[in-house]
Design brief:
single chain, Rossmann fold, Immunoglobulin-like, 4-stranded mixed sheet, 26 strands, carbohydrate metabolism, glycosidase, beta-glucosidase activity, Glyco_hydro_3_N_sf, Glycosyl hydrolase family 3
């Protein structure tokens, strides 16, 4: 790889027109070629390689190479398995290399703020810590094969409706803690080749032109040294986006963008140094990720088997009453639901790949169990109940030992480009489930969907299995779990609420075409339900097994020398079959004087155990993970004080909890602002006595502190409110400045 001086020498050989050419792609997928600079190819992911062969489009309308359709990230996240995500990334990178793709556009990292969001299937979780832990390994895996990645969509792209124009309006604390923190960690720990900016605005500034996000934060604070690439069509003003730090415009608009940039530089509207800045980044990207020589082939059958394995490990067993699962070998069976023969195994739009070999659940069940009764039960296009189809399904289910009923969201109600209006299954499927359960309670519902589903009918059936969009091996993976060949070990990476009205963003989600107001703050997903102590259908982290696990001997040790907390817990498989459990560690900050979630995931570990086997799992929480973003100082800080660790197998299924105290953190110097309360001044009156006397506040403070009724009224008021008592704002500004000098230096 070249040195910095080599890239600068290469830059000096380029004309202004050449440099402007490099800043916009040549076409839909390829970067531009200029003398001395190669082109590279970017291709969609993140759950397979969508390399188009007949021109480019964002809807999957033209042909693409045949490849492996892996499970969606919403399903894979349910493994809570960092090693598996690394291996998955390696497989994706190997396929990309074989197909001569230089940069894979993934992973999707947006937070699942609402289960209505149309693209949730493409994202990991409602939790930023889990998102970061898994995305880091995905990125490292892909990049280990010499293929670049593009974590997306930066930032706060949490709905599909009006995604090109709407503004995500978010307070600083929740912006940093919930919506930016996973991106921060992948930049710092995985160093992806590129980052893709989102379409939307953040706090009324288009992300493609947002200097704070693309330069101040991404570059100056997080030290990102890769390329910022636009989402396809996200650039409105190429000059403004260059100025903000967006390096590569996709797809190419050479007839428009090149002359616009050249004219702006020549007229003095755009500093050529900013153009050079982006070109240098692109030269490094192209050099680092250019593929040379013959690319290795890959055995599609082997990769299909890996897709099957990863899907089976990810599937979540939500409910298993009367141990209806695994299915019995010699029992009579009925298979119901059109999804059994026509599974929804992948998303449409940007995620849709030309699958190598799709095995349906119907075919996989038939291969294992032979003949069984079957009925469609419903239609995909007409969502109203079809009584003829329901009657056929009811007849098929009567008297059977086991009924496997496939249900889910058809693509016409869940896809990229629009948001759902409900999390209920279509009416025809709900009616089908209820009708079948009336004549036979031995029903297992198998879900195919991209995000959380309401399940008010679940008490009428015995089994419930979540497969999300399980990839081309959907049938084999599903039957592996249903049959017991694979013991389910997936855990929900998102909460399944009882109803959409219970969700924290219900009152604001999609209420305006122009903006989205994130009024719930940091209380997203399980943070909200746990803090409110609110019941849900299935909590974050939930997932059953065909065996049982026992947690014992948990303890917590605070190591101030290493700035970390160590948690040890012994987990034993007390059942009769091998299984895997995910130990989850949640933390509650009881030290802070501002609102905190009752539980936040801070560590997890997947452990595999033979029947009767036990292992001691050791988990570590670095103090760094205890930080929260202080909007007053714009800094991340840790509090000294009391905390609680919860050791569980879901956010609700807690096996032990431990209180501990941190005392070793150097407290940041207190800094005041005009919005600081008068109580802050009263509490600091001994330290700030000189400034209080100098500005004549001593009598006012004495009066406030000596009269209880007045004190109750005055203490919450901000310092700036003292103008109501005749004080000048300019004097208050000087007072605050002098106080801050005293607080910082002691002088």
């Amino acid at each position: 790889m070249k040195q910095e001086r080599d890239y600068r020498a290469q830059l000096e050989q380029l004309s202004l027109e050449d440099k402007a050419t490099l800043l916009t792609a040549a076409n839909f997928w390829n970067t531009a070629r200029v003398p001395g600079v190669n082109e590279i190819l970017l291709s969609d992911g993140p759950s397979g390689i969508r390399k188009q062969t007949e021109g480019g489009d964002a809807l999957g309308l033209t042909g693409s190479v045949e490849t492996i359709a892996f499970p969606c990230l919403a399903l894979i996240a349910s493994t809570f398995d960092k090693d598996l995500l690394r291996k998955y990334g390696e497989y994706l990178g190997q396929i990309a290399k074989a197909e001569k793709v230089n940069v894979l556009l993934g992973p999707g990292m947006n937070i699942k703020r609402s289960p209505l969001a149309g693209r949730n299937f493409e994202y990991f979780s409602e939790d930023p810590f889990l998102t970061a832990e898994l995305a880091i390994q995905y990125i490292k895996g892909v990049e280990s094969q010499g293929i670049g990645t593009s974590p997306k969509h930066f930032a706060a792209n949490n709905r599909e409706n009006e995604r090109f124009t709407s503004s995500s309006n978010i307070q600083p604390r929740s912006l940093h803690e919930i919506y930016l923190s996973a991106f921060k960690r992948v930049v710092e720990e995985a160093q992806p080749a590129t980052i893709m900016n989102s379409y939307n605005k953040v706090n009324h500034v288009l992300v493609a032109e947002n200097n704070y996000l693309l330069t101040d934060l991404l570059r100056n604070q997080w030290n990102f040294d890769g390329v910022v690439v636009s989402d396809w069509g996200a650039v409105k003003d190429r000059v403004a986006s260059v100025r903000a730090g967006l390096d590569l415009e996709m797809p190419g608009q050479p007839d428009y963008s090149i002359p616009q940039v050249v004219e702006a530089v020549r007229s003095g509207k755009l500093d050529e140094a900013l153009v050079d800045r982006s070109v240098l980044r692109l030269l490094k990207l192209i050099d680092r990720y250019t593929l040379e020589g013959e690319m290795p082939n890959y055995n599609k059958d082997n990769y299909h088997e890996f897709a099957r394995s990863i899907a089976a490990q990810s599937i979540v067993l939500l409910q298993n009453e009367d141990k209806i699962l695994p299915l019995k070998d010699n029992s009579s069976k009925a298979v119901i639901g059109a999804f059994a023969k026509h599974p929804r195994y992948q998303a449409g739009g940007l995620s849709k790949v030309n699958a190598y070999k799709v095995v349906t659940p119907f075919d996989a069940l038939e291969a294992v169990y032979g003949d069984f009764a079957y009925a469609d039960g419903y239609e995909f296009e007409n969502l109203d109940a079809n009584q003829k189809l329901i009657d056929e399904a009811v007849e098929a289910a009567k008297g059977k030992d086991e009924v496997i009923l496939f249900a889910g969201f058809p693509e016409n109600i869940e896809s990229e480009g629009f948001d759902k209006t409900s999390i209920d299954l279509p009416d025809n499927q709900i009616t089908l489930i209820q009708s079948v359960a009336e004549v036979n309670p031995n029903v297992v519902v198998v879900l195919q969907n991209g995000s959380a589903v309401a399940t008010p009918w679940r008490n009428k059936v015995n089994g419930l299995v979540e497969t999300y969009l399980a990839g081309e091996a959907v049938g084999e993976a599903t039957v592996d779990v249903l049959s017991g060949k694979v013991n389910p070990s997936g855990k929900l990476a998102e909460t399944f609420p009882e109803r959409i009205q219970d969700t924290p963003s219900y009152l604001t989600f999609n209420r305006s075409t122009e903006e989205e107001n994130y009024m719930e703050g940091i209380f997203v997903g399980y943070r909200y339900y746990a803090t409110k102590d609110m019941s849900v259908a299935f909590p974050f982290g939930h997932g059953l097994s065909y065996t049982d696990f026992e947690y014992t001997d948990s303890n917590v040790k605070v190591d101030n020398d290493k700035d970390q907390i160590q948690i040890d817990v012994t987990v034993k498989n007390i059942g009769e079959v091998q299984g895997a459990e995910v130990v989850q560690i949640y933390l509650q900050n009881r030290a802070s004087n501002i609102e905190m979630a009752a539980k936040e995931l801070k560590s997890f570990e997947r452990v595999e155990l033979e029947a009767g086997e036990s292992k001691t799992v050791k988990l570590v929480i670095p103090f760094e993970r205890l930080k929260w973003f202080n909007p007053q100082t714009s800094l991340w800080q840790i509090d000294n004080g009391d905390y609680t660790v919860h050791v569980g197998s879901s956010v609700n299924d807690i096996h032990s909890q431990h209180d501990f105290e941190i005392t070793s953190i150097d407290e940041p110097p207190i800094q005041l602002s005009l919005d600081s309360s008068l109580k802050d001044i009263i509490d600091l009156q001994d330290t700030l006595s000189h400034e209080i006397d100098e500005f004549g506040f001593d009598q006012m403070i004495y009066k406030m502190t000596s009269e209880p009724n007045l004190r109750v009224l005055a203490e919450p008021a901000p310092i700036r409110m003292l103008v109501m008592f005749g004080l000048k704002l300019s004097d208050l500004v000087k007072f605050v400045e002098k106080c801050n000098v005293r607080l910082k230096t002691g002088e």
